[in-house]
Amino acid sequence: MIKQLSQRLLGPVTLLLLALTFWLGLWVTPPDKVQGNLARLLYLHPAVAWVALYVSFGTATIASALYLWKRSRSLVMDRVAHCAMEVSTVFILLTLITGSIWGRPTWGVWWAWDARLTSTAILGVFTVAYLALRRANDDAELRARRSAVFAIIAAINVPIVHFSVDWWKTLHQGATVFTQDGNLLVHGIMLWTLFISLVAFTLLFFWLLRARYRLDVLRGERDQASLEEALVQRRREGVH
Amino acid sequence: MIRVAWLVAAKDLRIERRSRVLLWQVLPFGVMALLLSGLALGAAHAGHSNAAPGLYYLVMVLVALLMINRSQVIEGSPGTRASVATLGLDPAGVFLGKALALAVELWLTGVVLLAGAVLVLHTALGGTLSALPSVVVTLGALAAAGTLYGALSGGGQGPATLLPVLSLPAFAPLLIAGERSFSAALYGGALLQWWVISLVALVAYLAIGILLYGVLEES
Amino acid sequence: MIRVAWLVAAKDLRIERRSRVLLWQVLPFGVMALLLSGLALGAAHAGHSNAAPGLYYLVMVLVALLMINRSQVIEGSPGTRASVATLGLDPAGVFLGKALALAVELWLTGVVLLAGAVLVLHTALGGTLSALPSVVVTLGALAAAGTLYGALSGGGQGPATLLPVLSLPAFAPLLIAGERSFSAALYGGALLQWWVISLVALVAYLAIGILLYGVLEES
Amino acid sequence: MVALSDAVVLVGGFPLLSGVNLELSVTSLNVVTGANGAGKTSLLRLLGGLVTLTSGTGVVCGVDLRSGDLRELRRRVGWLGHEGSFYDDLSASENLTFAAKALARPTSEIAGVLDRVELSSRATTPAKQLSAGQRRRLGLAWLLLRRSELWLLDEPYASLDDEGRTFFDQLVGDVVKSGATVVVSAHDPLRSSALAPRTITLAGGLVVGDHL
Amino acid sequence: MVALSDAVVLVGGFPLLSGVNLELSVTSLNVVTGANGAGKTSLLRLLGGLVTLTSGTGVVCGVDLRSGDLRELRRRVGWLGHEGSFYDDLSASENLTFAAKALARPTSEIAGVLDRVELSSRATTPAKQLSAGQRRRLGLAWLLLRRSELWLLDEPYASLDDEGRTFFDQLVGDVVKSGATVVVSAHDPLRSSALAPRTITLAGGLVVGDHL
Ligand code: HEM
Ligand SMILES: Nc1ncnc2c1ncn2[C@@H]1O[C@H](COP(=O)(O)OP(=O)(O)OP(=O)(O)O)[C@@H](O)[C@H]1O
Ligand SMILES: Nc1ncnc2c1ncn2[C@@H]1O[C@H](COP(=O)(O)OP(=O)(O)OP(=O)(O)O)[C@@H](O)[C@H]1O
Ligand SMILES: [Mg+2]
Ligand SMILES: [Mg+2]
Fold first, then answer.
1. What distance lies between CA E47 and its chain's CA centroid?
2. Which of A125, B195, E152, E197 has the fewest C-beta atoms under 10 angstroms from its C-beta?
């Protein structure tokens, strides 16, 4: 009952929160002292990056780990991992795009050889490589196992992306919202907007994931139907 | 000769289109290699722009090595080669066809990675565009030379490690010519001269291939 | 596990020793790549020394890719794999053995190319020698990771292009860590920190391999 | 020894096996026949744990094909496929040494085994330079070292010469007598009249005939 | 058609053929037999111009094996080897289309040829997914398109099923009748009694027996 309701509500709530984010971000919050209206990317870029790095990559990693763990091994987990990784590819791309758009006016270039930027791009290649690996394997079981192992190895890179700003001390914004000692650097309505944007994009991820997963299930059903057909045809090969 | 060339090129490209190896494996590799070589130079060379043409061609040579290898591997096992040999295809045509298919693949990847160079290595858009003709010719020469070296290295039957060591010395002049004309297009200099060198290399490799490919085919 | 590891490593090294692929193909490729990448940067960066550690590791990664590919190809056709699978070798042992063989090959090549770096990239001899421990560990980590990725990419059965795109992103951190500690050894800086990162990576990859290699083996 | 019910094996959406029901008893000799593409090789691969069961159930050597440890199963079968089954770059005797060491068997057996398959004169030739029939013989030698419970032999007669086939028949007889189960796929009937195999006929990925 | 005298083929210092003397006439059916490793495959490869003659002399299809144009010779032979003879990544019909175009033959023949070897139902399956026997059949289809003067067939029976062997016998009969020369290596005698081949026995790279 609750599950059904929450599923029903996921879409509308996501849209509502996204709309709220845009309204707050574009009209309600004040422009930044230094960056002016550019600072409004604060409500887009960190949220997208957060989803890309932790929510979607995390989902894919956990699903892969669950697949590898003998007791929870099922192709459902494999499917979740695959869908999450696909959505992750999109979000990493969005992170790169929004970051580049932000970087052009602030740093003067679309791209800098900054540790976080580079490691994010590398993470993007990881997701593409994951998809390439899936394409290269026919056998469902083998594919599931190989891609699960690959996803786990790839996950090692997430902390590298996160800590890269501290380790290399380069261009990209360090921890801005929460500093090491727990002090808030952003206040009031801006903080709220930031927070809402995080929730909104997280929900957006789950919405997309569910849509993608459903598509996969539909495909699976269609495959099942064509499988019946293929079985009948194969059996008929015997009788001349 | 031309008929055979079309036939062979169509076959190679069909196999590539089907397997999507180019799109899913070689292209991401190229992007990654571009990122990595940028990184390897480290923050010390923050203004990478000067090194961009060199890095671009370095990556393209690596990409070319993978593609040449693949172009030979799809020719199949010794059994397949024996059968195809009995079709008596004109070797000049086979050479041209394989080189053409390889060139098409290299051009596609080359253009994508040029865009990558503009984005991440900050080459000027105008200059990059004006380097296009020289890139096309240089990559064409790489394709022709690569097809020859692919056959030389035992056509995918020998270990995959023979190709790199054989072909790298031959690619070095192409790499330099390409890099110089790309540099010239970006920062000014004698563009035409290097472009002509690439063109001469292209013609020379095509001529050698047409004349000698038959000699190389597996006996 | 250890017994199987020795057996497998001995087999791999025997095949390599017999075929001399390492000596005649991979090593010359490495030397040439070192020269070529020096060239590609052009006269503009005449004082290469600063870029030397990056170039060195870039070349070592390329060399490693060739060796990983070879390490999987010698496992043979699907028929051979099926037969060997029925021997029921402990997968952790197989992983360790193949990684060990690969590491030995990489170390040999690595040392030769270090000498090359001193000669052609003019790195200081003392600094280069003091980078040796970090080179050994980093190349070891490359070998462990490479063995995993080799098996992931279909064990030489898939197209040879899958391996580079799978493994390059994972090699990037290793490359950086190696480069930084080499740089530190040459020009001063926090050597130990990067060395520890390589060491952690080595241990992590060994652990993953021992735990998960069995899952990857062809079903 | 072997019990399959409604076994379906799918690869890339195509059913290699489309619902096999089969029981094989211990210490038996079984020949699988059927037209090209009927699914003989696929059946043998399934029994050897070299391919996964998509639906249906199966137990081989006491290992459940769906939930059991396939590696455990593989360890107990001997496999001779269409293609070579050894390292191409190692010589015949080096290949056998590797197998013997992997199985913790004394390497002193090797010379005898090579002699039995008449490869002594090619002991130091790299496997890839052997002729088609010699490769088959090396495959048999590899099996002789194994002494498995379940032997899976895919068209063992192919490329073997007359003498080789006689040797093979004799070998199979011995193996069955010593308590193993043998499954052979073949297009020709076995030649030795002393062997009385059960013959299973496949067609379209199904068992369509079965007689002793 | 074929005339070899003292033909020696050395590869890597090992004599695959150690002095073969052989004459084959046009429009004949010849079966080469011999123990494993006797040199059957090597003889066929020599006749097909796929390996070079080290010493002795040889003329095949009017082409001198030492000084002639081997490519010219290859163009005139049809070859069916132990291994597959087509592009693994292309489907059965794409493979035949490639061959037909290469030979400037109308592509309309292909459907008929596929039907003759009973591969119509696998026309769009990539060659690498075909079963062993189906690969053999595809090899035969490739040959049917060729219509060469000299057919060299290395153990064609291997992995073919009953029906396939019958088809093969019939095909060989037709081919010889239509004026071609056929050389088959085989361990089994041909099954069709209508064929009366000349049988050449090899041993140790030499011809040791020859009877009609
Ligand atoms: C292509 C360029 C860029 C990329 C790939 C990128 C990537 C990322 C990533 C991955 C994160 C999440 C880090 C984490 O939570 O661990 C992040 C956060 C953030 N980025 Fe960017 N970024 C880019 C450009 C920029 C620019 C130009 C700015 C502003 C000047 C910026 C400001 C921020 C801020 C404020 C955060 C939140 C930081 C925090 O509190 O942790 N980014 N970015
Ligand atoms: N993707 C695919 N599409 C269509 N058919 C396929 C595919 N993959 C495999 N097949 C078919 O599956 C069957 C495999 O059968 P298998 O190799 O078990 O046959 P077999 O009985 O061993 O035959 P042979 O006697 O020729 O060795 C073949 O008919 C093959 O064409
Ligand atoms: N380098 C080598 N050293 C020793 N022997 C070799 C070498 N290369 C090839 N041979 C031998 O040459 C012979 C090749 O013979 P070929 O393949 O023609 O035999 P075949 O008559 O076709 O046998 P089969 O019936 O098994 O197919 C084999 O005996 C093989 O062992
Ligand atoms: Mg079969
Ligand atoms: Mg033979």
1. 10
2. E197
pLDDT 10s digits, C136-163: 999 999 999 999 999 888 765 666 778 8
A174-207 pLDDT, tens digit each:
666 555 444 455 667 778 888 888 899 999 999 9
Give percent of chain B with pLDDT exceeding 70: 91
Does the C-beta of E130 come closer than 6 Å to ligand 2?
yes
- pLDDT of B155 > 70? The answer is no
Distance to chain E for D92, nearest Cα, Å? 14
Q: Give, in order, the Cα–Cα distances in Å from E68 to each of A150, B94, D53, D149.
A: 55, 22, 56, 56
Q: How far apart are CA E162 and CA A61, in angstroms?
A: 52
Backbone angles phi and psi of A85, in degrees to 5: -65, -35
**Number of domains, chain D:** 1
pLDDT for residue C43: 46
CA distance E209 to A115: 77
Q: Give the pocket of ligand 3 (CB within 6 Å).
A: D 122, 125, 129-134, 159, 161; E 11-12, 14, 16, 34, 36-42
| Total H helices, total E strands in chain A | 8, 0
Residue E18's pLDDT band, with cuts at 50, 70 and 90, is: very high
Q: Which domains does chain A have, with CATH numbers?
A: 13-239 (1.20.120)
**Section B19-28 average pLDDT:** 84
pTM of the complete model: 0.88
Domain extent listing, chain C: 2-218
Give the residue from B140, B175, B164 showing the smallest Cα distance to B65. B164
Least confident of A159-163, D160-164, E31-35: A159-163
- Residue D47 belongs to what domain range? 2-211
- Chain C positions contacting chain D at CB under 8 Å are 4, 7, 11, 14-15, 18-19, 74-80, 82-83, 85-89, 91, 214, 217, 219
CA of D92 to the centre of ligand 5 (A): 17
E54 dihedral zone (left: phi>0; alpha: psi -120 to 50; beta): alpha
Q: Where are the beta strands (DSSP E) in D52-197?
A: 55-60, 63-64, 77-80, 150-154, 181-185
Of A102-106, A121-125, B35-39, C215-219, where does the model show the most confidence?
Answer: A121-125
Quickly count: other Cβ atoms within 10 Å of residue C66's Cβ: 25
CA distance C151 to chain A (A): 9
Neighbors of chain E with 3 or more C-beta pairs under 8 Å: B, D
Looking up residue D8, the CATH number of its domain turns out to be 3.40.50.300
